[in-house]
């Protein structure tokens, strides 16, 4: 923890630019400028999902045209070798490092973020994520796998955690009337980061590659520079509302809603409540089911439908030629891209819907619908219906993304807004856990089925039923969530003391009907949205072109 604290102290040497008090909005500020600031950061760190685009090129970083393989090399030797190319499986550990470190860093430094504000947290996130890419590039140049793990995996993973939670508390406070929609807009950027980053990385590697280089380290440096610009713009455009601010003309609903608390729970007490752990299990089960499918989407479609994907309905996967397998692999890549698109869209759609039907009801829909779709998936596969099978998993992945974007609003409803960013950070350890459970369930059951001689098109039936059981556990936990016991509520005096710094600065700041948060989609807001929207639209277009090959 000292590292981040020291970073915060060092960055504080700038004349107040990173201080929380300097980020409090003044008259005329438009709250619609905050979501695109969050997107600037999330679209960059979301490239963690697309890092696998580097694995094959890096597996021949020395050989360039073909890997310099050393089959008998241990993982420890591989970390330090300069004469053998790295194995894809060894580089794949980066994916685990990303999401374990994301959850751990969000949990450890969430409280620090609440104290120093989103700008300083976003600034440190940019240094970690982009600095990690630079260190990773050095690891590629010197061919030291441990340096790649340390740079992009560990330091970059810390940047992921800080960047991911940096806008949550701020957005919830700016949009008390639309909590779900606000967090959905930002968190959809994390799902969209790979849609932009993966094709961009491919373009850059093709541009930089030579007869002696696969273009990977050059791409790392180029993307670090691009991401640094975007993330710094996002960090410096963050603003927080003055204490007690409410949208102009809006008042909290008079109708009592027991599931939306008007009180706050302190960070040190949130994890002592059953509500925290029930929501933790709800998120863990929802994510475990979805993340397992994401990791195996491509082989799953290929093995289940095999020849049907290329007009050969009676040809099984093991009967396909090398050329035919290459053809269906390209189609399966389109399936993976389509799932990513629904993952992104679901983050905005479901979180926005939760503003109208409530968070608990939204999770009921997630679990009941997903249980039905997972249970029916083997039937769709046996019917040979690509349309039903693909549609089922697109809906499932939309709810996977929706689970991420709805949970911050769920936490704000339960625990109040004062510490929601830090509480959300601690809850993300559920994601780290799911990142282990989901892939293990899907991958190891597949291997067990293969060893037992099960046909490729039947490999995933048992898996679907196990994931269905996990979702039933999540459904039960969601049912058990009730309002937090009043004994955990902070007093008005405690909240006032915490908000003292903001209140002091806000003394000279017009609030409420004096113009803060107004403007809607005026010209500056539209320009900022276009700044993040155009790259996102490009990524969607590339994905749709790839997905069209499925049908």
Q: Care to give the gist of this entry?
A:
By secondary structure, the protein is mostly helical. The protein is 69% helix and 0% strand.
Textual characterization of the structure:
With 551 residues, this protein is mostly helical. It has a single domain (18-246, 258-483, 512-550), classed as MFS general substrate transporter like domains (Growth Hormone, Chain: A, Up-down Bundle), CATH 1.20.1250. The protein is built from 22 helices and no strands. Helix 13 packs antiparallel against helix 19. The protein starts with a helix and ends with a helix.
How far the N terminus sits from the C terminus, by CA atoms, comes to: 50 Å
Contiguous low-pLDDT stretches (5 residues minimum) are 5-15, 502-514
CATH class: Mainly Alpha
Largest sheet: none
What is the total number of structural domains? 1
CATH 4th-level superfamily: MFS general substrate transporter like domains
What is the number of helices?
22
Mean pLDDT rating: 86
Number of strands: 0
Return Rg in Å.
24 Å
**Backbone structural class:** mainly alpha
CATH topology: Growth Hormone, Chain: A
């Amino acid at each position: 923890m000292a590292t981040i604290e020291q970073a915060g102290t060092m960055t504080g040497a700038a004349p107040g630019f990173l201080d929380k008090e300097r980020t409090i909005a003044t008259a005329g500020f438009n709250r619609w400028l905050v979501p695109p600031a969050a997107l600037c950061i999330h679209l960059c760190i979301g490239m963690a999902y697309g890092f696998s685009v580097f694995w094959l090129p890096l597996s021949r970083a020395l050989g360039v045209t073909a890997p310099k393989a050393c089959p008998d090399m241990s993982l420890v030797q591989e970390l330090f070798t300069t004469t053998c190319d790295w194995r894809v499986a060894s580089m794949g550990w980066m994916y685990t490092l990303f999401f374990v470190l994301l959850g751990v860093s969000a949990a450890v430094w969430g409280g620090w973020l609440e104290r120093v504000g989103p700008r300083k947290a976003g600034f440190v996130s940019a240094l970690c994520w982009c600095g990690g890419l630079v260190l990773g590039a050095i690891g590629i140049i010197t061919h030291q796998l441990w340096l790649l793990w340390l740079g992009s995996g560990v330091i970059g993973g810390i940047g992921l955690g800080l960047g991911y939670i940096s806008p949550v508390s701020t957005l919830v406070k700016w949009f008390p009337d639309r909590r779900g929609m606000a967090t959905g807009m930002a968190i959809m950027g994390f799902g969209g980061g790979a849609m932009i980053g993966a094709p961009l990385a491919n373009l850059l590697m093709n541009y930089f590659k030579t007869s002696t280089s696969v273009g990977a380290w050059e791409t790392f440096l180029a993307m670090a520079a691009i991401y640094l610009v975007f993330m710094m713009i996002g960090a410096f455009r963050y603003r927080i509302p003055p204490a007690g601010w409410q949208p102009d003309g809006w008042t909290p609903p008079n109708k009592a809603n027991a599931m939306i608390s008007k009180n706050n729970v302190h960070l040190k007490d949130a994890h002592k409540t059953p509500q925290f752990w029930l929501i933790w299990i709800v998120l863990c089960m929802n994510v475990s089911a979805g993340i397992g499918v994401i990791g195996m989407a491509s082989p799953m479609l290929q093995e289940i439908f095999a020849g049907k994907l290329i007009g050969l309905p009676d040809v099984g996967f093991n009967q396909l030629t090398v050329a035919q397998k290459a053809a269906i692999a390209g189609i399966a890549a389109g399936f993976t891209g389509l799932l990513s698109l629904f993952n992104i869209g679901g983050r905005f759609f479901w979180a926005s819907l939760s503003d109208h039907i409530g968070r608990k009801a939204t999770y009921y829909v997630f679990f009941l619908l997903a249980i039905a779709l997972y249970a029916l998936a083997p039937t769709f596969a046996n019917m040979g219906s690509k349309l039903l099978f693909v549609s089922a998993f697109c809906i499932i992945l939309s709810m996977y993304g929706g689970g991420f974007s709805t949970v911050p609003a769920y936490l704000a409803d339960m625990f109040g807004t004062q510490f929601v960013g830090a509480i959300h950070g601690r809850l993300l350890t559920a994601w780290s856990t799911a990142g282990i459970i989901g892939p293990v369930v899907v991958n190891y059951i597949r291997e067990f089925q293969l060893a037992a001689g099960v046909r490729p098109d039947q490999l995933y039936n048992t898996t679907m039923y196990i994931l269905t059981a996990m979702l039933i556990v999540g459904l039960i936990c969601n049912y058990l969530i009730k309002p937090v016991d009043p004994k955990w509520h902070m007093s008005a005096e405690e909240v006032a003391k915490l908000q003292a710094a903001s209140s002091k600065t806000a003394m000279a700041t017009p609030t409420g009907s004096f113009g803060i948060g107004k403007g809607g989609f005026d010209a500056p807001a539209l320009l900022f949205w276009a700044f993040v929207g155009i790259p996102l639209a490009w990524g969607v277009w590339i994905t749709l072109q790839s997905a069209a090959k499925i049908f």
